[in-house]
């Protein structure tokens, strides 16, 4: 048991060091050797946990998904916020800001790396759908939401939000965003089957 | 004027030959030389039109988008089909079957090539949104659809359909599909603001 735990600790040390290096030096500019130096381990130890630098980046991306899901879970705990707003705020809180780590974000969004983007998206959808199921089912029970397919509705909202606002798939101009966000919230209201205007508080945040 | 036209004809010859080769031999197994032989041109002529084999593949993907959009436009012409069904059938008709060209589809869906998938998606969204705007605006005018943001509604429907059913982003099992398709059609009804059950004809196509 002890060894397993130590192994997990070691793996985490590598991830933390690599993440810091990717952020400060850039992903391309960081070598496996740089990581070894910071963690103070032998090459063999590194390759026991990861087969390549790219695999480290993939593990970091899964960490980012996990961190986002936990932020979302925290937001959902605050029962003082009306349910539907809480759900949308949880989705927003989930979005990785890549705290200061533009390097990782950039790496993920590079054309060569849409593979990593896809990895992020799949992991995020899997992790976040159950997180949102609880509040959505609560909304249905309280007669605030009306839908036949709650899971699929959540999947669609997460997917649309990600593709439109994190992935820039439409290449909208900055000035388009207020309208696009409102349209998105309007579609969310419809899919959840809320009263019209239930998301007005959020919509107003994005001006006229 | 004549030269421009001849250039376009030559470019098209290269595309047709390359597409046939990619389909019959596979993309990886096809070299620029193979293409030169079929079209019977010099290397310099090829590189006048394309900078690489990959650029040819990109041009083929744009062709696939164009062909899909034309199929959709044709479907929309058949006024005997009720409007909302016609719109959904146009979206389905647009989906590339890659007529026999599993090779191109495979190439596009390879993890290394999510870049091509993104290229396809962006081009498809740009090309198809205006195609669907006309019938959707007609539906609004005829009081069949009710929505505040028609363009964004079309964008969302196209994006969801593509990501869920062409891209396999959720990695659903075969047996999940009937439910997922119904849930999708149900969300489409809500976003378009049709009468409930307006898409029942289509839904019934996907069994119970």
What does this structure look like?
The structure is a homodimer of 208-residue chains. The first copy, chain A, is an all-alpha fold and 208 residues long. Helix content of chain A is 73%, strand content 0%. Chain A has helices at residues 2-25, 32-39, 43-49, 53-77, 83-94, 102-109, 114-141, 150-166, 177-192, 200-205. The model of chain A has no long low-confidence stretch (mean pLDDT 89). Chains A, B: InterPro entries: DNA-bd_HTH_TetR-type_CS (IPR023772), Homeodomain-like_sf (IPR009057), HTH-type_Tx_Regulator (IPR050624), HTH_TetR (IPR001647), TetR/AcrR_C (IPR049149).
CATH class of the largest domain in chain A: Mainly Alpha
Distance between the termini of chain A: 58 Å
Task: Name the shape of chain A in a single word.
Answer: elongated
Mean pLDDT of chain A: 89
- Give the helix/strand class of chain A: mainly alpha
**Mind telling me the CATH superfamily name of the largest domain in chain A?**
Tetracycline Repressor, domain 2
Oligomer, anyone? homodimer
Give the biggest beta sheet of chain A: none
Number of DSSP strands of chain A?
A: 0
């Amino acid at each position: 048991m002890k060894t397993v735990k130590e192994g997990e600790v070691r793996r985490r040390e590598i991830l933390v060091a690599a993440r810091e290096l990717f952020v400060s030096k850039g992903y391309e500019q960081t070598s496996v050797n740089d990581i070894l130096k910071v963690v103070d381990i032998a090459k063999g130890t590194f390759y026991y946990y990861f087969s390549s630098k790219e695999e480290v980046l993939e593990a970091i991306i899964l960490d980012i998904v996990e961190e986002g899901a936990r932020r979302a879970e925290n937001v959902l705990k605050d029962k003082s916020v009306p349910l539907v707003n809480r759900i949308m705020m949880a989705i927003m809180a989930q979005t990785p800001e890549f705290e200061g780590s533009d390097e990782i974000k950039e790496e993920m969004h590079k054309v060569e790396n849409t593979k990593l983007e896809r990895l992020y998206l799949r992991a995020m959808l899997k992790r976040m759908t159950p997180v949102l199921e609880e509040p959505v089912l609560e909304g249905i029970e309280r007669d605030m939401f009306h839908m036949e397919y709650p899971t699929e509705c959540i999947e669609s909202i997460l997917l649309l939000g990600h593709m439109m606002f994190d992935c820039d798939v439409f290449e909208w101009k900055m000035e388009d965003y207020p309208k696009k966000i409102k349209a998105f919230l309007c579609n969310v209201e419809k899919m959840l089957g809320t009263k019209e205007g239930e998301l007005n508080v959020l919509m107003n945040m994005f001006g006229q």
